[in-house]
Each structure stands twice: as C-alpha cells, then as structure tokens.
C-alpha cells in the first residue's frame, strides 16, 4: 500500500502513474481540500475533482483542468442572466458540484468522493484530507484574498506575502487519512509534485498528521514540483520567490522541515543547491503523457524502497 | 393596464399574445408559484420560467416546456454520478435555477424574476404571486404527493383526490400583485387558460386577493383551459373528472365562485352546459402559434371591455 499526498494537476499526474503500476486497491491518494470553496452556492473541490477526473481518464489534458469534451452552455446562459463569469463551470463538471452540494447536507465529503470515484470506475482510494472546512486565504500586497479569488479571478497577479488556512485549527484529518497512515500494509508515503505551500502544507498541518508522519515506520519521499527552478503549472515558483525563497531542491526539502527520507528532482535542478542529509533521485520529472507518468511512478516507488 | 393571472404553458401562450398586442409596460403577468420546489438543492419555479422564457421568445415550442435549442450534458454527467434523473434540467435552463438559488439568499423571488425578465429583453411585468413558500400537495389514492412528484415523476398517474397548498396560510401576496390590482390605470383582469385548481386557485386563495378581486372596479374574465372537455396540455381535465366534476364551461365558472364577469370558451364547448348569469365569448381558443395567440388576446381584451 502506497499513500500519495496530492494537490491538483501535478499531483494527479503522478497519482495516475502510481495507479497504472500498482495493483488496484494498493494506492490511497490523500487530496488537499484547502482550495475548496462555495461558488454560486455550489461546493467546489478543485483538487479532489482534478484527481478524480484524472484517475478516471476523463480529465482535459489540453487545458489542464476540468473534463475533456466539456461544453459551456450553462456559462453562456448564466452570462445572459448577469451571473458571475470569472470561475468557469462546464456543463458536465457542474453535475459533480450540484450533486456533491446536494449530498453534503447528509454525507461527508469523504463518502461522496469515494462514491463518485467508484461510479467513475476508479479502483484506487481518493480521500479528502479533511471532512471539515479549511479555506486557504492568501495575504497579498492588495490585502487578503480567498484562494480562488487570488488564483482564478486575479490570476495570481497580486504579490504573495503569506498564507493562512482558515478553519485549520478546528479541522480534523479525515478518518480515511488517519487509517491510511496507520495501515499495517503501508509501504511508503509519497508527496506528489504539488505546490508545497498551497497543496501539501495544509495536509501536513492537520492535527495529528505531522506527529503520525514523524512516528512512521515507512519511508517518506517527495517529488519536487520544480523543473529548472520553475513550476510546470501553477504559481508555486512565483509564490516562493515572492516570499524571498529560491525554488530549489533545498528549498522544497526545507518546506517539509526534516520530514523527508528522500527527494526526487529533475536533471535541470541537479546543479542547484541540494538539501543536506537527504537521499536524492535525479531523473526526468516532466510528465508529458501516460507513459511518462508510469515511468516516473516506477522510479519513485523503487527510490522509496531504497530509502527504507 | 391589463393584469393576467397565469400558470404554465397555456397561461404563458395567452400572456405572449397579450404582450404582442398591448403597449410595452401595459401588461402585468401574475404567476403561480405553488408548483415551485427544491430539486438537487436548486430553487425551481416552473411556471415563472415558462412565462419568462415564452415572453422572451426562448421557449421550446415542440416539447412545450424549457428552452429551445437546449442541451443535456449536465443530465448525462449527473446520471454517471448516480444523480436523480426524473426531473430533467437542461444546461441552459440550469443557469436560471443556479443563479436564482444563489440570489434568493439575499433577494426576493419578485426582484430576481423582474431582473431576469429585464435581462432577457422582456418589457412586460412578470410577478410571482408570492415571495413566500407555497407548496402544492396532491392527495391521491397512493397518499399525498408533492406536486412535482405527482406531475413529473408519476406523470399524473395516481388518482387525484384533493389538493392542499402547504404554507398558503402564512404566505402573503407579493407587493407587486397587490400593487397591480390597486393600480388606477388597471383596465381588466384576465384569468389565463391555466389549470383552475392547480395554477389559479392558489393565487386567488392568498390573503387579501379574493377580497381585492371582489371589490374591483374593472371587469374580470377567464379563458377556459378546456377545448371539447379536454385540456390542451396537462392534467386539468383528468383531475376534474377524478374529483367527480365534468370539464365544462359551467364547471370552470363554478371553480371561480361568482368572481367572473365573463368567460371565453371554445366552439367545441358551446353545446356543453353553460354557466348562468355570465357573459360568454365563444371562439377558437386553441393557440397553435404566435398569430393565434395575438388573435385570441385581441378578442379577450375586446370581450373584457364589453364586460365592463
């Protein structure tokens, strides 16, 4: 059993690679929910949906988010009625949000996520980090912004000054997350190439998770989200620079504060400052397609075993 | 100024005819909201939407409800996730429900309906009968059913035994409805060819409406929804028969209990039992297309003036 901690697109890609090479049922993907928000009265879980759609093979590979073969009639009709246009919801994607919102009145996000995954033919476990509300708030030079305001509406343009996870103090990790970390069959924990600050740190900051990870008996490795000091997608590198950090392997390892047994980095970062006292795997970490994902996943698993 | 009381499709057709022949702004359509319900967490107002889409020229004339050129991607995606299929929401139509649901947290249904109408280019006034919740409950031989359960899910198959408007005792008529009835410029009130029991009686039963109508100084006429003892659309005739009533002009007039100055009926019903002490206009009341709607509207207005 492998546990992968993931955010959005990069995490979903490595999760898909791991799903391709591991026996069905031997992968648990724990997904950030700090980006979750309510839009048009609908409960949106962007990272959960990216991982789910990707593992189901339904994701749009061109735009990098949402569903392939999506249509946009709802958005056009909404525009005609004066509705908000800044966050785009496809007609198919909308079914996920409407049905989730309806079911959340009586069920946990964990239960709904598991059921959606099953219905879409996914045989791996997808688990939200928490069933409680955690809202990422971004402190910028234009004031504090809710994450999607910063990320989508403002396209990460304001200067990043810090981050706050509203509700984190009262949130419990999901029972599935704790069960996965305590599973006797657990072999390794993999932090996917997701944004350390925005996607992974909220998971690590949940009550009890840091402690469980520090008392683990299995290797914990991370895959750096940077290639040549830049993120493949998203604002990770921009954010780190705006915090005065350099997006190097050493900086990634520092974000995980002594937790790691090993770090996977790209050839392009081999010359950058490396973390001390940590095993390194230097490889081609760009995942262009499914074979890339499976190959990187295979290397990651083998590396994790060597780190044990 | 003409006030029309309307339910769904039949009422919307006559309202469209009235809109075509009256100066813009001289028509107020008061619409039943007893069919309103919450589905998938969304506030659905079927009659309001039918009237709005019809006056905007966006209605689907073939199926008789919803929007023309509708697409159904949302429903397909919802089916994949195990969501309810019995009430079908088109991708474009969905924008109305999502945006209305969102806005209802801070605004009245009246305000939202007026704004949607304006945005869709409608120059007539569309007013919900009430801004409070009224839910039509149908007593059948299979027990009491919420209206849409009876009407859509069960396709009106259970035997109709009676009707109850849940919430009606606490509901106030909308301020727009009262203002329209008190407007000094009011010339006539027209009850559209809608289901008397399901669509018109909830409007009439609102506190103060019956009294205002009985103290009116303008003619009040109704257009029978029956042609040859059958409804053009919907269960009106079936329901009346199941209540032991015969769908005749006399029965329609009786439902309105002495309120009417005149009744418009179809040639096909001219031989059926006529109400006593009431002016009758016998005409072709089937509205196949826009010219039919305008012609009937013209006859209705002229007849209403003669009833004054």
Automatic annotation (TrEMBL), chains A, B:
Keywords: Magnesium, Transferase. Transmembrane segments: none annotated. GO terms for molecular function: LPPG:FO 2-phospho-L-lactate transferase activity; magnesium ion binding. It is an enzyme of class 2 (transferase). Its EC number is 2.7.8.28. PANTHER family: 2-PHOSPHO-L-LACTATE TRANSFERASE. NCBIfam families: F420_cofD. This is LPPG:FO 2-phospho-L-lactate transferase.
């Amino acid at each position: 059993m492998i546990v992968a901690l993931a955010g959005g697109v990069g995490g979903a890609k490595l999760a898909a690679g791991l799903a391709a090479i591991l026996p069905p049922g031997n992968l648990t993907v724990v997904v950030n929910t700090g980006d979750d928000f309510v839009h048009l009265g609908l409960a949106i879980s962007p990272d959960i949906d990216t991982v789910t759609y990707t593992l189901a093979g339904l994701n749009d590979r061109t735009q990098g988010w949402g569903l392939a073969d999506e249509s946009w009639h709802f958005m056009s009709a909404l525009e005609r009625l004066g509705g908000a246009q800044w966050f785009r919801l496809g007609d198919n994607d909308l079914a996920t949000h409407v049905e989730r919102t309806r079911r959340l009145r009586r069920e946990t996000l964990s239960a709904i996520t598991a059921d959606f995954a099953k219905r879409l033919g996914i045989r791996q476990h997808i688990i939200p980090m928490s069933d409680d509300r955690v809202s990422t708030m971004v402190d910028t030079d234009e004031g504090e912004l809710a994450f999607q305001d910063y990320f989508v509406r403002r396209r990460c343009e304001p200067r990043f000054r810090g981050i706050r996870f509203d509700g984190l103090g009262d949130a419990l990790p999901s029972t599935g997350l704790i069960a996965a970390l305590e599973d006797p069959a657990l072999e390794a924990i993999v932090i996917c190439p997701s944004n350390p600050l925005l996607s992974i740190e909220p998971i690590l900051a949940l009550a009890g998770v840091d402690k469980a990870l520090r008392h683990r008996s299995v290797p914990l490795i991370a895959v750096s989200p940077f290639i040549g000091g830049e993120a493949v997608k998203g604002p990770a590198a921009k954010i780190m620079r705006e915090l005065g950090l350099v997006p190097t392997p050493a900086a990634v390892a520092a974000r995980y504060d002594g937790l790691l047994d090993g770090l996977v980095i790209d050839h392009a970062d081999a010359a950058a400052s490396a973390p001390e006292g940590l095993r390194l795997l230097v490889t081609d970490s760009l995942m262009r397609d499914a074979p890339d994902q499976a190959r990187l996943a295979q290397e990651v698993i083998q590396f994790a075993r060597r780190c044990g």
